[in-house]
Design brief:
heterodimer, A: mainly beta, 5-stranded antiparallel sheet, 0% helix, globular, B: mainly beta, 7-stranded mixed sheet, 4-stranded antiparallel sheet
Chain lengths: 112, 114
């Protein structure tokens, strides 16, 4: 079983739609959680950290459920520029430390 | 402020040859990481330097891979001899002193072994 699992998509949505991505992680001792965004042939960039209380940054809302080991990302009012791969990332999985453990990513395509 | 830089951006080598990848972290960042993404798979951790010391090298696939960070500034990752399965994108990332600091990724080196 992979340490971080995501639906690979692609999710094809019209501009203005709301889209939700989900992710599960296997190690209950994981400490920190993130969503990264990766554009085609580019490096991953931090989109937002994820907290148990839920956090929002403009059109983006992230949620963490530690009991279910489940992370979500909600994008409202999708823009063409949101098209990218969204990576669910966990830190402090095996043996702790700073290393990041990535999911395979969920591809989003926002269309006119 | 300059970001993380990596050289080369692309490298095509034959099986059995040697390749050295370089990473220059953001100035002042003590933590430097190497990650790799092979085709169709997730990005995977290779190793972590704190200054010039290897903090965690649990992700290094085998002894054909050698990473160094002499002087605690830039780092090199050498693959010798390269095998077909080493093809992929090698990312370097750096972060500041604290555990909680964000890791900033470089643009990656795309390695193709033929």
């Amino acid at each position: 079983r992979k340490e971080v699992e995501q639906d690979p998509g692609p999710f094809n949505v019209p501009e203005g739609a709301t889209v939700a991505f989900n992710c599960t992680y296997s190690n209950s001792a994981s400490q920190s959680f993130f969503w990264y965004r990766q554009d085609c042939r580019k490096e991953p960039k931090l989109l937002m950290s994820v907290y148990s209380s839920g956090n929002e940054d403009g059109r983006f809302t992230a949620q963490l459920n530690r009991a279910s080991q489940y992370i979500s990302l909600l994008i409202r009012d999708s823009k063409l520029s949101d098209s990218a791969t969204y990576l669910c990332v966990v830190k402090g999985v095996t043996g702790g430390g700073n290393k990041l453990t990535f999911g395979t990513g969920t591809q989003l395509k926002v269309e006119l | 402020e300059a970001g993380v830089t990596q050289f080369p951006s692309h490298s095509v080598i034959e099986k059995g040859q040697t390749v050295t990848l370089r990473c220059d972290p953001i100035s002042g960042h003590d933590n430097l990481y190497w990650y790799r993404r092979v085709m169709g798979k997730e990005i995977k951790f290779l190793l972590h330097f704190v200054k010039e010391s290897k903090q965690d090298e649990s992700g290094m696939p085998n002894n054909r891979f050698l990473a160094e960070r002499t002087g605690g500034t830039y780092s090199t990752l050498k693959v010798q001899p390269a095998e077909l399965e080493d093809s992929g994108v090698y990312f370097c990332a750096s972060s500041g002193r604290s555990y909680d600091y964000e890791q900033y990724f470089g643009p990656g080196t795309r390695l193709t072994v033929t």
